[in-house]
């Protein structure tokens, strides 16, 4: 592909404490944060979900919070390959959603700009309010959409595809994890800012995103998992509405 096109980002190790452990100077206060929520299934239809993990990571990839939440309804499936969560983890470390959101509010500055893939959905799960709990949202699926001249449509990519093509990020061993997903979001957002400074680099990034084999989502590979509908529009049989 385009070796070196995306600069030093590809050399960063896939660890979220990479360049802070030995910092000898004060960084300016963070302005951008990423929030990520992982949900488990509380029923068989694709809307029956409850929050089970919340992470908050700042623009320097510092992990501010990693909270587990014990749903107040019985869990039908932990969707482990997708969420990385297990019954043992959630039951031993989970707190109530109300306590988790209260803690989150203490750590999240009202001036924060939240970045993430479909971050509006995460904010909705947590009932956070723009203008009160945070200042604004930046949806990565929007900033990284690419005009496809062949099909004359906008192509929108999953976070896994963006991370695989632009960050050389391989599949995560334990599936998704709220902390790693938030780190990916921060890194993709920082890369986006950097790419905007160079029209050539931005052009190559867009071409690479279009040219790469699409990254198949979990829902595409698994129309259902442990009997739970994964909400793929083409294979859904549960009949629940698609809420957008
Ligand atoms: Zn369904």
Automatic annotation (TrEMBL):
SUPFAM superfamilies: Ribonuclease H-like
UniProt entry keywords in alphabetical sequence: Hydrolase, Nuclease
Keyword Nucleus: no
Cell inner membrane keyword on record: no
Domain Exonuclease: residue ranges: 31-198
Gene3D superfamilies listed in its UniProt record: Ribonuclease H-like superfamily/Ribonuclease H (3.30.420.10)
GO molecular-function term, one example from the UniProt record: nucleic acid binding
GO cellular component: nucleus
UniProt xrefs under PANTHER family: C3H1-TYPE DOMAIN-CONTAINING PROTEIN (PTHR12801:SF159), RNA EXONUCLEASE REXO1 / RECO3 FAMILY MEMBER-RELATED (PTHR12801)
This protein's name: Exonuclease domain-containing protein
Biological source species: Elliptochloris bilobata
Lineage of the organism: Eukaryota, Viridiplantae, Chlorophyta, core chlorophytes, Trebouxiophyceae
């Amino acid at each position: 592909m385009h070796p070196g096109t995306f600069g030093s980002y590809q050399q960063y190790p896939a660890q979220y404490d990479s360049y802070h452990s030995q910092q000898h100077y004060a960084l300016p206060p963070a302005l951008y944060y990423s929030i990520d929520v992982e949900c488990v299934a509380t029923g068989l239809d694709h809307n029956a979900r409850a929050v089970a993990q919340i992470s908050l990571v700042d623009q320097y990839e510092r992990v501010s919070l990693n909270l587990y939440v014990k749903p107040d309804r019985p869990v039908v499936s932990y969707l482990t390959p997708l969420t990385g969560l297990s019954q043992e983890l959630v039951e031993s470390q989970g707190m109530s959603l109300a306590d988790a959101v209260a803690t989150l509010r203490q750590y999240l500055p009202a001036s924060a700009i939240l970045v993430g893939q479909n971050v509006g959905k995460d904010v909705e799960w947590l009932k956070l309010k723009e203008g009160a709990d945070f200042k604004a949202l930046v949806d990565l699926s929007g900033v990284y959409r690419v005009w496809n001249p062949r099909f004359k449509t906008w192509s929108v990519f999953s976070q896994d595809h963006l991370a695989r093509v632009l960050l050389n990020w391989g599949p995560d061993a334990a599936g998704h994890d709220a902390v790693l997903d938030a780190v990916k979001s921060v890194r993709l957002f920082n890369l986006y800012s950097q790419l905007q400074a160079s029209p050539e680099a931005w052009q190559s990034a867009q071409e690479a995103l279009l040219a790469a084999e699409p990254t198949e989502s979990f829902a595409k590979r698994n129309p259902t998992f442990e009997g739970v509908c994964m909400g793929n529009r083409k294979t859904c049989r549960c009949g629940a509405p698609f809420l957008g």
